[in-house]
């Protein structure tokens, strides 16, 4: 049976063109994207589109967009075999990460893609990205199940798990990396799926549940030489910080100065959630390796293992939205919920 795919267009470079007056890139409508990619009509896949209004540069993405996306997927879930989300690259890894936690019991592909050059430009990467994303979203195995029932990013020939991805180049076509998890598929002459890495649902007939309550009281503190107690306090101790992601050095190390540990301990005593995520793009937090990491552990900081900051943010928003109990959130935080950490 012919697969049917919903393309959801949120904005981003893929659908932008130059404003002749200002010389900056602005979004244009979806029918123009389809005109630029007539190949989509030759696929034997039924394509429908949903365009967000307003179309945005993804630097303007808010969690409310993730809620709208998740609800749209839920509302149209039975009609389609897969979903392709056209999204700006700047925050694509944040959106894909958040959606992976918000869509529980997913049995169909949700593939984010976009481009570095607008689709109307002769050397665009948008066409290839869009065509392959649609092919992957429509792909079924011998039993008729989706080949990739996960939230992913397809970019420059590689399919990456959404909550493992990060934007790592502002210019190269190869804009995304997933340093702690190999690609789930690679597109060459054929699309080669790394089947053993792709997560499968426990039940193929599971109902999709959308976690649409997010608690966004999360702050991110990147430790750096010269950081002051005042700046740290204003981030960690702010009453609106329920959880803080500490971006630390190497395998999860940070300064051992008494003021630094005092601020963390005060926050921990107030019941705040403190999560250690490494600034290194690749590798994992291990707070048992160095004394500077061990002190963080003693101060009550939890290990984010090899999670990306983007995934840590989405995971916290979603877990905190589900529960007011910080002890419960902490327990769930260290679990591998949808492939976001290596366990
Ligand atoms: N600023 C754009 C966006 O994220 C960049 C892109 O799409 O590549 O929407």
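Q: What amino acid sequence fits the structure above?
A:
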């Amino acid at each position: 049976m012919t697969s049917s795919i919903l393309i959801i267009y949120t904005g981003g470079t893929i659908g932008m063109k130059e404003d002749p007056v200002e010389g900056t890139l602005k979004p244009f409508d979806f029918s123009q994207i389809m005109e630029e990619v007539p190949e989509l009509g030759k696929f034997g896949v039924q394509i429908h589109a949903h365009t967000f209004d307003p179309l945005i540069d993804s630097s303007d993405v808010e969690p409310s967009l993730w809620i709208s996306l998740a609800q749209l997927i839920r509302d149209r879930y039975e009609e389609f075999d897969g979903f392709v989300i056209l999204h700006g690259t700047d925050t694509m890894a944040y959106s894909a990460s958040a959606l992976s936690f918000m869509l529980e019991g997913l049995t169909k592909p949700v593939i984010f893609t976009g481009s570095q050059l607008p689709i109307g430009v002769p050397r665009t990467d948008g066409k290839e990205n869009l065509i392959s994303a649609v092919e992957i979203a429509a792909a079924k195995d011998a039993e008729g199940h989706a080949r990739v029932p996960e939230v992913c990013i397809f970019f420059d020939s590689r399919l990456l798990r959404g909550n493992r991805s990060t934007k790592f180049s502002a210019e190269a076509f190869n804009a995304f990396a997933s340093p702690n998890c190999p690609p789930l598929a690679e597109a060459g002459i054929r699309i080669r799926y790394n089947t053993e890495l792709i997560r499968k649902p426990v039940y193929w007939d599971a109902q999709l549940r959308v976690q649409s309550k997010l608690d966004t009281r999360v702050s991110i503190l990147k430790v750096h030489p010269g950081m002051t107690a005042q700046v740290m306090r204003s981030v960690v101790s702010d009453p609106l910080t329920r959880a803080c992601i500490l971006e630390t050095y190497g395998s999860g190390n940070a300064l051992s100065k008494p003021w630094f540990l005092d601020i963390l301990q005060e926050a921990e005593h107030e019941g705040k959630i403190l999560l250690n995520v490494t600034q290194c793009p690749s590798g994992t937090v291990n707070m048992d390796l160095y004394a500077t990491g061990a002190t963080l552990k003693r101060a009550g900081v939890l290990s984010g293992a090899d999670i990306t900051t983007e995934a840590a943010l989405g995971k916290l928003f979603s877990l905190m939205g589900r529960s007011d109990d910080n002890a419960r959130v902490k327990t769930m935080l260290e679990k591998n919920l949808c492939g976001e950490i290596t366990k």
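Q: And what stands out in the fold?
A: The CA atoms of residues 4 and 46 lie 4 Å apart.
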